[in-house]
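Hi support team,

I'm filing this because I wasn't sure whether my run with zinc ion finished correctly. The job status page said complete, but I'd like someone to confirm that the output block is well-formed before I use it downstream. Pasting the exact inputs I used:
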Amino acid sequence: MPLREAGAVTGVGETQYLRGTDRTALSFQLEASLAAIRDAGLKPTDIDGLIPYGHGAVAEDFITNFGIEDLRFSATTPMGGASAVAAIQCALAVIQAGICKHVLLSLGRIGYSGGRIGTRVQQMPQFKVIGEFEMPLGAIAPAQLYAPMVRRHMELYGTTSRQLAEIAVTTRYHASLQTNATMRTPITIEDHQSSRMISDPLRLLDCSLESDGGAAVVISAPDRARDMAKRPVMVMGVAEGHPDSPSAITQRPDLTTLGLAKAAPKAFAMAGVDRADIDVAEVYDCFTYIVMCQLEDLGFCKKGEGGPFVQDGALGLHGRLPVNTHGGLLSQAHMAGMNHIVELVRQLRGEAAAQVSNAEVGLVTGYGDMGDGAIAIMRRA
Amino acid sequence: MAAVYDKLVPSPTPETQPYWDGLNQGRLRLQRCADCGKIRHYPRPVCDACWSMNTDWVDAAGTGTVHSWTIAHYAFHPGLKGDLPYILLTVDLPEGVRMNAQARGVEASALRVGLPVVVRFERVKNDLTLPVFEADFCRVS
Ligand SMILES: [Zn+2]
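And here is everything the job wrote out:
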């Protein structure tokens, strides 16, 4: 049975986002989880399913700290930055199967104060292949592993660094409207163009932040969601997609297509809406280019036309497609996309700091590892 | 060759060891399905065309063309600081697979999709040889 409207987001929570802390990732994850549970009007013991972000808190931590007596389901969705959105599909499936009523998705990290994101990659099992064949050659960090995708897109389609800058500038402007964002000083295209080169063609301001904090969401069965604290946000369509050659970008037949290209048509078909129906999109933004490439893979424009599509403030609050209205990983905080889900829900409730007027239908994407993708389309109930 | 090699090194497995042994012998070897003949890279246990687990190895021509590239300006590992900036090429091999490796003697301004390159071998430490690419002047048009 399709998962259309098999669950609703009933609670969202975030900690203060920081660059510098002496706290543990676990304490951020639990604080954000409690905030999401409170937002839903639930007690921590009402949670009967857990899908924590990988490499963080485990089910035992929640059972112990929250006093959950009868946890019925726990799993992780190991897709890097696509994990949080992929977890929505997993949550809907276990709700529809009747296993759970309230599933908690959560993340806590000390990406700034703990291990750097770049060096952590080497220790992850899904990177064993590039760990052997690419890292010894000097291709180590995501910026270096992804840059050949960007260069290929530029050579094939004429995409420019200034077009990528548009994404950085718009996202930073959205962050400037938030109270909870770590980078709130607006930037210009020239600031982007003069930021130092990290891995050509990616500059510093093409790259996301390293952050400390936590974020969480509660997904509930539709029959429970109706009488909870906040107006529920229904999940209309959801899917995950794995790219060709998922462990090595080098071997991918088309360097400019991500796993999201496989997931997006499924999610739109399940939701029964089209691109023109999307009022707001929270698009995973570990790098500016990844936003542009996903907009193509989502079908907002043809492959290769992402550069012109993002120009001229198109992704701004009043643009043709408002994107990353919270400031994203580029300027709010790197919460591996859990903050993108939180923001979409706030937009569809009408309670966002930078609110898109009359936002009724929106989408959120995740992108992770070497191109894994996930998407959820939601509507205001 | 530096006195102490302080960069990341591979940890070969029984399935990948022949590739690294080949580099040490100055040969670029690729894994081939012993049943259907499909060449695959990077080395792995199963052929995705016929699911055979029987493998052998062939010597690659050692030529290729540039598919994409990046130029590293920031060292994500302390051992690479002295090498900045360095060019990392993604190269199409005539055998139908790709590989990446650093470029040698190629100006950034000369980089383009389709640039012909040829593989060379650099012994970086005892029992570790890495592939690099030079412009293939025999084929540059
Ligand atoms: Zn075969």
